[in-house]
């Protein structure tokens, strides 16, 4: 409330009050005396609310643990909690490590009420007496209410310290001879408290006495709702969380509005009422308006406004005021008070707007709480925070059920309790359902429990469904249809798939689904639709409601048995069915052959999804209202030949028996998608001349398809066309007037008989072209140069000899895959390597192109190139211009038999690399690195690879944007050279394992760890089938993580019998691995580290090093020096302590076999995950073209 006194006075009292709070909050001896000017004879006018104390607890329980902790006090505490009273009991709340005295004393000061349970040994505990004295002082200083309970002692003995208490105080008097005043203070406090109101519970029913105590406490606390509550489970942590959200303790002077949101029956009102009881005392005025929605239906906004004024301002004569005058009173009077207003069950934004309560105009420190099923109301009103109420966890659900069904906090071991898991699974944590079912089962036997459960499966309890149906009834018609579709058909299905179907059905799902989410009727997790079981049952109940035993009258069918019944009834002319979606996962084995004739009679059918093919009879007709048709395994050779399919949007018949979809031209004006994938009887496509809105065509796996109608070239809106694995297709004629200007994906991979590529003229926006394994394709049409937007081109496995010069024009191309083009001779000789062409190329794959002998110098102008694969090429040398490729992070020269020397590699790394990882979602598993695997004696003799390898190593480490999942390097290495000890300063024998004991973790310049091993093959062992051989192993007690060599690189070594004619050229190789700091979890887990190899592989030695920023700088300086082959650099020394374990041959094979083997566990940061998701979204955008 704004002060009407001078600011100097306000500041004076604010300072004094802060001093008082500091005094209250600081630990002090038990005999402290609070000093404050508020207690002096001098009084200043001030705002009473400014001295309002804020408490953490409702009740503090003082008791002697050995006497009552596990009986009376424990029962009292738990019954207080059940009533929503926040009680402090030391063994429940104390934080470990805190001095018990100070924390207990502070808890007393932070409580509104104290209850002292006097028992036989209470007086023997100095802790109890200190608590009691503090309680007495808080009663005196702050007016704290205190109740005394006499458990097993005479109240007179307590008041007089006689009887069982006499000996205890005699001992205290002797013990505290140096401080006799302490014992006297205890006696005075005990006498005073024992004389106050209390209960002598000796020889009385415990439950009855506890109930009396609790009702008295609730009355004193002025809790409005706690008196009637008896089943509050798991609610107190939520209330504490909401207190923090509301910024109650310490109190924030800003006005805050909290929304509590959740599905019907989840406990929003209960949570709000407990929160209200807990905090309402902190405000000048407060009110809780129950069921605002009903109040609006029964009256109007003014009725609620009057309730607010009566409860907050105690105004009684309000009927004489008009609505505008009432609104004015609310605005003017509430602006000067610190108020708490709770509005329960608001279901329309207008209900809030008409109340004329502007939160910004309420008094400082005010709070509003709104409960609703509709999140959109809260967002529209502009609340400060929204709390979504969660379902009960399994433990709380069990406790609540036990209270209702067994009248106990704990489940019994009765036969009935064996059915409890089934009941709780049915209720799925919904408090209302648990209460209703539990109450219904109380005092019933096991047979009755079973019958009740069977009945619930067919007929859900109306006390639950009526509450849930309130949310459904408030929906618009289209939103109701979406809800029923999801409840009957699409729970657990992918979001985009369902949205597409709903969109096809004209239900506007983008807004409708959001409405259902906001009203807590559905949730979306992992891009899948989820719904509470009872909401799903509600939806199905609404569909069956009027005719529960007559499926033909239902609007939707989802069970095969109901579908069969509806087909039989349709023969007689009875049907109301609008949607049929039979679950492919259910009843498949039970399906008997069914006559399909009745389907022709379902004239109102709009949606049909079937996964069955066991039908007899004929299909002469399909509903003219049909909008979405998906029939997996459609058993007929064509669609019914009637006209028209005027509303059909999607036609999906994968794995069908269709030979010709339809004869001649068929006018389907709204048709957007056709899927005939894996329809192996399909011979030719229909004419598309009358289907101008087609956006997606999928003929994947139609192995007998020989002819695609040229009218396909007229489909201006076609975005996606797949003819993958159409192995009988000879050519693709897109017609003379081709205008596929919207086509972005064309997949022709696996068309093994395709002898001529299509003319690409007219495909101006094509982005993805896949011609992989078109093994009869000798060349590519020169019009490919017109594809200025093309980003991906694969000719992998084709028999082409050269690429047309027009490829130069593809300035957007990012990936060019020509691998396994075994006849290709001039892939680059015909391609200009000018920077004005192929300027976007990121990945160039020429692996296994056996006839490529030269790479042109102009390759150095591909400034964006990051990955270059030349594995198994016939090149004798690489151009020196390769050193200009500053973004190059992957270079594969594996098995380049004729390569005589390695050129100078790039020295500097561009800081803007890593685009590859942003375009390929699986790229985290695609390592960066340098791979020179060769058995060429000339190359071995002429070159020392280690300086080049370490230079490559340094440039990647310097710019981490060039790799994700670590990187590695493989190079030939002379046995005599070994591993350079000047860099890998910790070296071990090939079979040794080590464990990091200590390391320099505090050095900010530490970048990661590097490892190196030298190995060769002494025999060719084809018996080894370990795909990880060789690999770097990190073994813990039960698991083994491994960093392995790429499988494609393993094929370059002779032990896989691929290069048996090189066995005489045994050559040692070195394998260098880098793992960056954030991924080096092995330094903390103590994992044993070693390199492992299979039979026939000999590990010579290995080493490791902690990598520091200074090392990289020194490596770069050394790499640039002219005498780097003779001089060794000096490196940063670091603290690294390792334990070595010498491996005995054959000793650990059985041990290793028992461990769970896992790929190395790379830490995935939020940034990495976002990058992956963005790349995945781009891929999905292409693969889903025509679907969304």
UniProtKB/TrEMBL annotation:
Under PROSITE patterns, the record lists: TIR
Q: Does the keyword Repeat apply?
A: yes
Record keyword Zinc present: no
Write the record's keywords in alphabetical order, separated by commas: Leucine-rich repeat, Repeat
| Residue ranges annotated for the TIR domain, each copy included | 55-221
Classification via InterPro entries:
Apaf_helical (IPR042197), Disease_R_plants (IPR044974), Leu-rich_rpt_3 (IPR011713), LRR_dom_sf (IPR032675), NB-ARC (IPR002182), P-loop_NTPase (IPR027417), TIR_dom (IPR000157), Toll_tir_struct_dom_sf (IPR035897)
Pfam families given for it?
LRR_3, NB-ARC, TIR, WHD_ROQ1
Q: Which PANTHER family did the record assign?
A: ADP-RIBOSYL CYCLASE_CYCLIC ADP-RIBOSE HYDROLASE, LEUCINE-RICH REPEAT-CONTAINING PROTEIN
Q: What is this protein called?
A: TIR domain-containing protein
Q: Which organism is it from?
A: Stylosanthes scabra
């Amino acid at each position: 409330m704004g002060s009407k006194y001078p600011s100097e006075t306000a500041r004076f009292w604010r300072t004094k009050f802060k001093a008082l709070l500091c005094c209250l909050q600081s630990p002090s001896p038990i005999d402290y005396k609070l000093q404050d000017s508020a207690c002096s004879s001098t009084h200043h006018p001030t705002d009473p609310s400014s001295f309002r104390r804020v408490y953490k607890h409702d009740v503090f329980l003082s008791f002697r643990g050995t006497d009552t902790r596990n009986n009376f006090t424990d029962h009292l505490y738990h019954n207080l909690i059940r009533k929503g009273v926040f009680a402090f009991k030391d063994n429940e709340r104390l934080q470990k490590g805190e001095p018990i005295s100070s924390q207990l004393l502070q808890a007393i000061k932070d409580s509104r009420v104290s209850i002292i349970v006097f028992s036989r040994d209470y007086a023997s505990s100095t802790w109890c007496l200190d608590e009691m004295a503090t309680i007495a002082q808080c009663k005196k200083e702050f007016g704290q209410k205190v109740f005394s309970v006499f458990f097993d002692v005479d109240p007179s003995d307590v008041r007089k310290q006689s009887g069982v208490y006499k000996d205890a105080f005699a001992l205290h008097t002797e013990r505290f001879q140096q401080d006799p005043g302490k014992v006297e203070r205890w006696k005075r406090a005990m006498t005073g408290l024992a004389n106050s109101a209390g209960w002598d519970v000796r020889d009385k029913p415990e439950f009855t006495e506890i109930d009396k105590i609790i009702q008295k406490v609730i009355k004193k606390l002025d809790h409005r709702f706690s008196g009637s509550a008896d089943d509050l489970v798991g609610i107190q942590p939520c209330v504490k969380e909401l207190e923090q959200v509301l910024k109650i303790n310490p109190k924030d002077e800003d006005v805050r509005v909290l929304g509590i949101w959740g599905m019907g029956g989840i406990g929003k009102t209960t949570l709000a009422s407990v929160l209200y009881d807990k905090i309402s005392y902190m405000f000048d005025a407060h009110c809780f308006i129950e069921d605002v929605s009903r109040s609006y239906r029964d009256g109007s906004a003014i009725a609620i406004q009057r309730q607010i004024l009566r409860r907050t301002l105690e105004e009684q004569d309000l009927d004489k005021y008009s609505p505008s005058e009432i609104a004015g009173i609310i605005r003017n009077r509430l602006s000067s008070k610190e108020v708490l207003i709770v509005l329960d069950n608001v279901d329309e934004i207008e209900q809030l707007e008409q109340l004329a309560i502007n939160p910004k105009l309420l008094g400082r420190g005010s709070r509003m709480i709104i409960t609703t099923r509709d999140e959109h109301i809260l967002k529209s009103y502009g609340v400060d925070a929204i709390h979504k109420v969660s379902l009960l966890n399994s433990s709380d659900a069990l406790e609540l059920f036990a209270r209702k069904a067994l009248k106990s906090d704990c489940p019994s071991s009765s036969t009935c309790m064996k059915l409890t898991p089934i009941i709780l699974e049915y209720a799925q944590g919904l408090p209302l359902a648990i209460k209703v079912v539990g109450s219904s089962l109380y005092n019933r036997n096991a047979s009755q429990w079973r019958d009740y459960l069977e009945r619930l499966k067919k007929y859900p309890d109306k006390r639950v469904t009526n509450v849930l149906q309130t949310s459904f009834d408030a929906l618009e018609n289209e939103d109701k249809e979406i809800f029923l579709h999801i409840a009957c058909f699409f729970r657990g299905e992918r979001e985009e798939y369902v949205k597409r179907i709903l969109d096809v059905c004209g239900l506007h799902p983008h807004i409708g689904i959001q409405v259902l989410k906001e009203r807590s009727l559905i949730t979306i997790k992992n891009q899948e639709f989820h719904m509470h079981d009872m909401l799903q049952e509600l939806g199905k109940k609404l569909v069956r409601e009027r005719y529960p035993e007559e499926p033909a009258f239902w609007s939707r069918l989802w069970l095969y048995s109901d579908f069969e019944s509806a087909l039989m009834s349709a023969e007689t002319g009875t049907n109301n069915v609008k949607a049929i979606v039979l679950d492919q996962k259910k009843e498949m084995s039970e399906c008997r052959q069914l006559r399909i004739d009745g389907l022709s009679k379902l004239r109102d059918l709009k949606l049909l999804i079937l996964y069955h093919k066991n039908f007899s009879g004929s299909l002469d007709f399909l509903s003219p209202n049909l909008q979405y048709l998906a029939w997996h395994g459609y058993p007929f050779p064509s669609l019914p030949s009637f006209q028209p399919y005027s509303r059909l949007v999607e036609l999906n018949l994968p794995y069908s028996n269709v030979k010709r979809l339809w004869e001649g031209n068929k006018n389907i004006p709204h048709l957007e998608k056709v899927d005939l994938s894996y329809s192996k009887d399909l011979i030719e496509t229909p004419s598309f001349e009358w289907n101008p809105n087609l956006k997606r065509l999928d003929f994947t796996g139609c192995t007998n398809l020989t002819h695609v109608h040229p009218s396909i070239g007229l489909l201006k809106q076609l975005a996606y066309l797949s003819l993958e694995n159409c192995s009988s297709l000879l050519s693709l004629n897109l017609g003379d007037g081709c205008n596929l200007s919207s086509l972005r994906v064309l997949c022709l991979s696996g068309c093994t008989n395709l002898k001529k590529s299509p003319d690409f003229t007219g495909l101006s926006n094509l982005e993805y072209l896949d011609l992989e394994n078109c093994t009869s394709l000798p060349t590519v049409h020169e019009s490919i140069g017109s594809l200025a937007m093309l980003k991906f081109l694969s000719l992998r496995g084709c028999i082409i000899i050269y690429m047309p010069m027009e490829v130069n024009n593809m300035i957007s191309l990012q990936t060019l895959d020509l691998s396994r083009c075994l006849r290709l001779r001039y892939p680059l000789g015909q391609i200009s390597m000018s920077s004005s062409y192929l300027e976007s190329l990121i990945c160039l794959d020429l692996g296994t192109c056996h006839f490529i002998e030269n790479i042109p110098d102009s390759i150095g102008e591909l400034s964006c190139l990051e990955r270059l694969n030349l594995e198994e090429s016939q090149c004798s040398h690489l151009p020196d211009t390769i050193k200009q490729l500053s973004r190059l992070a992957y270079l594969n020269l594996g098995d380049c038999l004729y390569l005589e020397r390695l050129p100078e590699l790039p020295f500097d790394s561009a800081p803007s690399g890593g685009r590859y990882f942003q375009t390929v979602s699986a790229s985290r598993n695609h390592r960066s690195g340098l791979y020179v695997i060769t058995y060429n004696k000339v190359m071995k003799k002429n070159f020392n690879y280690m300086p080049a390898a370490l230079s490559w190593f340094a440039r990647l480490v310097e710019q981490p944007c060039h790799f994700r999942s670590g990187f590695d390097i493989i190079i030939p290495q002379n046995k005599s050279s070994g591993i350079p000890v000047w860099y890998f300063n910790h070296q071990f024998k090939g079979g040794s394992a080590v464990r990091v004991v200590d390391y320099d973790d505090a050095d900010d310049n530490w970048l990661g760890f590097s490892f190196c091993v030298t190995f060769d093959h002494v025999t060719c062992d084809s018996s080894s089938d370990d795909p990880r051989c060789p690999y770097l192993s990190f073994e813990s007690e039960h698991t083994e993580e491994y960093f392995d060599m790429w499988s494609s690189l393993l094929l370059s070594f002779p032990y896989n019998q691929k290069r048996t004619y090189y066995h005489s050229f045994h050559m040692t190789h070195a394998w260098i691995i880098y793992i960056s700091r954030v991924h080096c979890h092995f330094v903390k887990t103590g994992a044993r580290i070693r390199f492992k190899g299979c039979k026939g592989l000999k590990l010579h030695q290995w080493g490791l090093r902690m990598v520091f920023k200074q090392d990289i700088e020194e490596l770069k300086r050394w790499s640039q020096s002219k005498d780097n082959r003779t001089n060794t650099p000096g490196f940063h020394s670091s603290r690294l302590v390792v334990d070595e374990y010498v491996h005995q041959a054959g000793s650990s094979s059985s041990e290793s076999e028992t461990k769970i083997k896992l790929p190395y566990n790379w830490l995935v940061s939020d940034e990495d995950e976002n990058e992956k998701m963005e790349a995945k979204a781009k891929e999905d955008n292409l693969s889903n073209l025509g679907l969304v």
